[in-house]
Amino acid sequence: MVRKKSDGRWEGRIVVGHRENGDPIFRYVYGATQKELLSKLHQSIDQYQDVELTEDSRMTLAQWLDQWLDEYMAGTVRKNTIYGYRMYANTYIKPILGNKTVSSITQYDVQKMYAKLKKEGRVHEHPQYGHALSDAMVRRIHAMFHKAMKMAEEAHLTAKNPVDGVTAPKPNYKSKQILNEEQLTTFLAAIDKDEIWRDFFYTELTTGLRRGEICALKWQDFDGERLKITRSISSLKEGEMTIGDTKTVQGNRTITLPDSTAQRLRERKKAALTEWIFPNPLCPEKPINPSSAYHRMKTILKNEGLPDIRFHDLRHTFSTHALASGVDAKTLSGILGHTNASFTLDTYTHVTGDMQRRAADVVGDFMEDIFGEELKPWQENAKTEMEPSA
User: Fold this and answer.
1) Residues 66 and 38 in one domain
2) At 82, which CATH number?
3) N or C: fewer beta carbons within 10 Å in the chain?
4) 285 in the same domain as 361
5) pLDDT tens-digit profile of 36-67?
6) Helix (H) or strand (E) holding 373
């Protein structure tokens, strides 16, 4: 149906679906001239060819995102993942596109939203970046939004996933940092004076565990020489924590500890009053909150005048030394809980090939004072695997 409205515009409509009672659902198209309208109608006909939208396609994007999170995602991903997705939806997507009907969101709308977020999406002004949102964050929002709109397409709420074909910025991840010899000396001296945290950070530096993994360790995971990694803790807002699976299937693993680390934990276990290896000092029946570990590390770095590295960079410090000391990528991949050895190599290209010598110089012989001869079993295992069988 095509007609000219009283305001001079031309209006047309096509059937894009049906309500439960059989009544048609129309999509209306407008143009300044009849020729423009007919052109738009042909495009819409092509777009909605073989599409049968439901009555729910008239809900707003904000309503759909809530329904997707509550009914489709709940129980399929970890609680902290849902928390992150909901934060992306409420903080970044809804304020821009939330009031539009889900079926009317276009690729142009999404691309325009990303540009706005990148320019002024940060809620709290950053002293260096202002209100600009990082490329990495925009890309995480993109990944979540694509999942939500793919499900909307499968549920017949939209003719096509409007996130398909949108150009998302490439993540501008910061380069990995490690503490050099002098900085490690300072850091270790500082934690050695900290009765609450010294064993925690020493274990981290000699195992490379993820923050959530080390916080979730129980004494049942320690047999005197090895650690079983089977769970992870995530921080939510207002101090709430959630305990769940490790990041990947390969994250469930058993690692052999350096003798110095195993000895520290054996001594620590003698005075243990709780099931947690590293309990909350104020509430020992609970584990240490990952956020508390992060803030304690940041305080130590600041007090000692050390670089403002991330907690994850302690994992990089361990991994860099291990590779530079001759531990093969497959063995290290198992220790770190990576999906495969190729991911480990991709992650630590800065310590392989031509740059291996440079990384060894950065770490130097200092870490030998920590590990001593304890890396040799890993190195020997690697050599044994590489030798041809008789």
Assistant:
1) no
2) 1.10.150.130
3) C
4) yes
5) 878 877 777 766 766 677 888 889 999 999 99
6) none
